[in-house]
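Q: Trace token order:
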Amino acid sequence: MGGIDRRDMFRIAVAGGVAGAAILAASPEEALAQAARQGAAPTFRLLLVNDIYKMAEVGGKMAEVGGKGGFARLAAIAKAERAGGVPVLYAHAGDMYSPSLMSGFDQGAHTVELLNVEPPDVFVPGNHEFDFGKEVYLKRRAESKALFLAANLRDADGAPLPGHEDRRIFELGPVKVGVFGVALANTPLMSSAAGFRFTDEMAAVRDQAKALRAAGADLVVAVTHTDFARDLEIMRSRLVDVLLTGHDHDLRIAYDNRVAMVESGEEGEYVTAIDIYCIIGERDGKRQVSWRPAFRPIDSAQVTPDPAALAIVRRYEAELSRELDVPLGTTALPLDSRSATVRSQEAAIGNLIADAIRASTGADAAIINGGGIRANRQYAAGATITRRDVLSELPFGNSTVLVEITGKDIRDALENGVSQVDNRAGRFPQVSGLAFTYDPKAAPGSRVLSVEIGGKPLDHAATYKVASNEFMFAGGDGYAALARGRTLIGRTDGALMANVVMVHIRKLGTVEVKVEGRIVAK
């Protein structure tokens, strides 16, 4: 080959164009890496948000330095990314309609109005989209401008749902990107999903990836609302090229040189962009696309809120303020309702809520799910607690229940509660009137070491009155054990949990609850 430089064999034009200089490379992989380093325009861009509940930003004051997240900043980010001259596929990986303060009043309608300011191309329903039942879910879907993808979601009789698709191919510049959606198969355990059928996530991944590649997709993107264990399974299956996921509330980026996986945290605090660089060629007469991702987590604190979305947020905030900014009591000690706390350990705010429902029902003990505590914030000592605070912490509208069950049932309920502590699952218990120790390293189902009720060892044969909430009583978060005995206060007879807690705080005046060894991990 004489004096020909081997690099001339890969004098490749990266699809999308290179800013500034030609690419000379010894391989497609090197060319793609070089394009990213030299500031090339990517071939296309993927943008992901997931698990955004609060319409307003977190921290600071609206449109001022110090705040982050919220729908107005999300809209600004999406608009800016779409205005950059690069084809964009914007995806929302689920959880929006609930839970939030406003959703308790309008069942998530405000979230649709806000997301429609700059709607995503793809929306995959999360488990919280079903919190208000089938009729509301379908109504919200009809109001949305986004394309709903959920290949493993059907009507109860197996028929496709109106306004839903399994998959679609998008032409992003010269690349055909096949996209499919997968909902969380365990949604019926977590939400009010009667009337829907959810099938296995991995079966859907296999079927949809195969169908998209057969239809000519160059790259396959899965948008899923699935937990971390399933995310890893999807990634390691090599069935898709990119996984955009939600549900765990983590800011997470992974790439093993074959499959990219991204989750964007929660509340729109971060929105993740993946710039995809592609080389299009042929091998053995067949079209071949080589690609490489470049990840850009976008910190919403650095973004000015979108004016149109901000005006909607302020309108809803004004409506709420008139009713909710009413003081109830004052904290003597700090309270922590961050999800990482209430889903993994005894929390003072969990003790407060569990104490309130135990006192209101006259129960021997109370068990609530940490995932039902939702404001995800910290209260300093001396802070004033308002109606807004309580409804932000307890937005689901659950009522209290009271059951009489055996000690063995209580132990089974606690075993269920700590069975997924390593995943920070919402089933983690917060308790009152009882104390227990457990070994988080033991096998699930065999973790609880000891239990006391009223300061005495639990008697498996004895019966106890246990207060909880209607969601758990119905088997939510796996708490089937709570419904095994006699129902004393049923789902339609109890008081609204949020109201019970408000009355309790007002009665206390000064809230001095603290962590006191009710739950101990050995």
Remarks:
- The chain has three domains: 1-39, 42-312, 325-521.
- Confidence is low (pLDDT under 50) at residues 1-13, 17-24.
- The longest helix spans residues 307-324.
- The two ends are 70 Å apart (CA to CA).
